[in-house]
Specification:
The chain is globular. The chain is of the alpha/beta class and about 375 residues long. It has 16 helices and nine strands. Belongs to the peptidase S33 family. Keywords: Aromatic hydrocarbons catabolism, Hydrolase. This is Epoxide hydrolase.
Length: about 375
């Protein structure tokens, strides 16, 4: 519910209307750079065994240059009211979509990495039938760029959560739900720990209950141990592309490529999406996410030059699994087998757990209807709607 004290403790100029209006010159420059791409040769080996295949990316870049319509996507995003405000020295961009019901509960959504508020494009309208929806851009992402010169204070998940708590207070919301995916799933429970008197419940998409080491497997039946040991091995750093240790150590080096080449930026984002969804062996499986959404996300990274700054979750040691908390109830969508729930219940008040087929790590982009239904079900079950 919207507090009657809205804006009384802050000057209304603290919150500024925002509208996406990318200069045409920036779009022309993007297309010119795409046309001038110097393509590498294909390396020996199976199509995906050395990384994103040249043929796959060429086809996607051709579509980006010749058929993709940024202006249409910009118009789609601009149908939602957007604002910026300054909190703790950081400009925060956010979407604020009010429900037609003034007494509807509030819900703050936190997007994933390497993603943006584009992740929620197909959630905002349906969710606003039930909630007042607030969707901020994480600091260093998209239209929440880091200031120049850089603020040398490290960002952390806790600092983001404090920023979100201030944002909700500034908007006048006394009680609200929280939802997050990936990086957002780290922010959501942290916000509950910092502001339990304000948070109704925490809803996240997976991550919780995943064993990160031998200690998490203790006390499990043998059949459960066997079914999840591969997860513990994966999260311990074995296998995969090795992107996380590099981002934690040398993100500035990669940022030069992302800032200078839109194709380098796209290749990196595509590789993360593919890796999170189960890296293909010889051929790419059917794309679970519409390619216009993939390219809108890549365009947003490129046009705002935030590829490098978005990697702070790794170099600030903020990446990982969601923290345990029992301050408020937790609901999980696409949470995986029941053994994950049993592990999660050791440190969390799990009251809702869905184990639907997981079409993509970026669930809001791949299965928005399913996610909207699950969010509504969780909060309705708390009796707060």
């Amino acid at each position: 519910m919207l507090s009657s004290l809205m804006f009384m403790t802050h000057d209304i100029t603290d919150i500024r209307p925002f509208r996406l209006e990318i200069p045409q010159g920036d779009l022309d420059d993007l297309r010119a750079r795409l046309a001038r791409t110097r393509w590498p040769s294909r390396l020996p080996g199976a199509a995906w065994s050395r990384g994103v295949p040249v043929s796959y990316l060429k086809e996607l870049v051709d579509y980006w240059a010749d058929a993709y319509d940024w202006r249409a996507q910009e118009t789609k995003l601009n149908q939602f009211p957007q604002f910026t405000t300054d909190i703790d020295g950081q400009s925060v961009h956010f979407l604020h979509v009010r429900s037609a019901d003034p007494d509807a509960p509030a819900l703050i959504l936190t997007h994933s990495w390497p993603n943006s508020i584009v992740e929620f494009t197909d959630l905002l309208g349906p969710l606003s039938e039930t909630f007042h929806v607030i969707a901020p851009s994480l600091p260093g992402f998209g239209f929440s760029p880091f200031p120049e010169p850089a603020d040398e204070r490290p960002w952390s998940i806790e600092r983001v959560a404090r920023t979100w708590a201030e944002l909700m207070s500034r908007l006048g919301y006394e009680r609200y739900g929280v939802h997050g995916n990936d990086a957002g799933a780290l922010v959501a429970p942290q916000l509950a720990v910092l502001a339990p008197e304000h948070v109704i419940g925490v809803h996240i998409t997976g991550g919780i209950g995943m064993p990160t080491g031998p200690a998490d497997l203790e006390g499990l039946p043998e059949e459960d141990r066997a079914s999840v040991e591969w997860v513990a091995d994966m999260l311990s750093g074995t296998g995969g592309s090795g992107y996380a240790p590099y981002l934690a150590a040398r993100p500035q080096t990669l940022s030069f490529g992302w800032a200078d080449s839109p194709v380098a930026q796209l290749a990196y984002l595509v590789e993360r999406f593919k890796e999170f969804d189960g890296w293909p062996e010889d051929a790419a499986p059917p794309e679970p996410i519409d390619r216009d959404l993939i390219l809108t996300n890549a365009s947003l990274y490129w046009l705002t030059n935030t590829g490098g700054s978005s990697s702070w979750t790794y170099y600030e040691d903020a990446a990982g699994m969601p923290i345990d908390q029992k301050a408020v109830p937790t609901g999980v969508s696409h949470g995986g087998p029941a053994v994950f729930r049993r592990i999660a219940e050791r440190g969390n008040a799990i009251v809702h757990w869905e184990d639907h087929e997981h079409p993509s790590h970026m669930l809001a982009m791949a299965a928005p209807d399913s996610l909207v239904a699950d969010i509504r079900k969780f909060f309705a079950g708390l009796g707060r709607m």
